[in-house]
Amino acid sequence: MKKWKVTLACVFASLMSLGQQDQSPKLVVGIVVDQMCYEYLYRYYDKYCEGGFKRFMNNGTNCRNTNYNYVPTYTGPGHASIYTGTTPSDHGIVANEWYSRHENKEVNCVEDTAVNTIGSESAYGKYSPQRLKSNTITDQLKLTYPKAKVVSMSIKNRGAILPGGHLSDGSYWFDFETGQLISSTFFATELPNWVQKFNKRKYPEKCLKEETWNTLLPIEEYHESLGDDRKYERLLVGKETPTFPYNLKAMTNDSLHYGLFTSTPFANTYLTDFALKAIENEDLGTDGQTDMLCISYSTPDIIGHSFGPYSIEIEDTYLRLDLEVKRLLQTLDSNIGKGEYIVFITADHAVVPVPQFLTDKGLPGGYVFMDSIISTIDSLCELRFGARLLEHCDNLNMYLNNDRIDSLGLQKNDVVAFFGQHLIPWKGIKRVFTTNELYEAGKDHGWKDMIRRGIHHRESGDIVVMLEPGYLPKLTDSEEARKGTSHGSAYGYDTHVPLLWYGKGIEKQEVFRNINITDISATLIHMLYLQRPNAMSGQPIVELLPHGR
Ligand SMILES: [Zn+2]
What average pLDDT does this structure show over 301-330? Predict the structure, then answer.
């Protein structure tokens, strides 16, 4: 009887473990669309094809209320938060570039002077994840299962490096000098053969010499946008109006300008081509061990900054990106197998409509010109304390000169209070927080908590300024300053992003409760049976987990 019980228990245990392996997908593909607003899923819905975004929306799980839970909403912090499952207060990526007090200079979130480029002679490869202070889910997968493969790619270095984490088998980004996909010695000593071969196709160069970006559909059908020639749009290099068609050869005048290539949807096609080559050549999802492929499409952000969310350029970018998503899914179906993989799509932030457009329509919004604020604060400081006390200001963080405050025998709290008192009256400034009060903030302080999650004690300033809705900070006023747009705030237009899931075990459903961006990796670890990465603060989206429902 006892023996029978033991045998049954063993059979049961082995069935359970078999079951778990069976439940893990062969491949997880994470797609980040840089600057994608939630509403793009719906505004352009009728024009999307059946096999792209709609395949997720009609057959997968759509988390319709997914939000960033910290500021600043920029690309570096966004990618780091999606893949670490925590916020800048833990992973330390507090902006794309910030002032590092201990290094006494502005630093880029992925710069690394200790490494070198592989794949070209340029300096575009001197990047690594060394500033990322916590582990990504991709790190966790590699730590637990060394056989698992992680491959990451983007036009932007930070869009590739932060998702791939520290242990990536290959993180690749675009070299704006040579038009090649490159990496750094942090990851490998040379590019794999398949990457070298891909580079030899010279697709970016061919596009610049031969291609014209025209609208996918007849331009008069773009009712979802507000016209082609609008005063709120910046000009691409070599153009006199912000209008279609964009004849790249005529615009570059025979000198190759790879920045222009990345400002067109051709760069999305290029990255998809590269992803398909990676699936094939790295044998992703073929050995019974879950692999991860991280793709970040940077071009929607580059185009969005110039033209804003109501432009035909942005609409056309999304109609074409939809076709790229379809192409990717078709390859996953045929190479990995239908129902054997999981794909999620999200964004690293969304975007504010061009503030000048908002003010012209009588809506809240505008600009705050930092140069005049800084010069006013400097003169007030000289009058009150006998010296300038602001050391540096960027990303709406003010760094005080602590040495000078000490040598003058001043109390830092008095200086901070003085700054707050003189910043708050400026039109467009909503709140001024001192980082000391933010570090002490508890739960549920609303805006305050969002800012607290976005600062790191070693990297951030002493004072953080929050602007009113619709406002963007600019250094100085000019006609150019009032064109194009940006992001970075705690408001819905920047924080509300799509989150779509499709594939193995994912049900068709819509989830309306609040999901934080940090919940994506916190969900994936359960799909992959992993330990929580070191600083993860997100919580699993139980609706996506078979045992959680
Ligand atoms: Zn951006």
Answer: 98
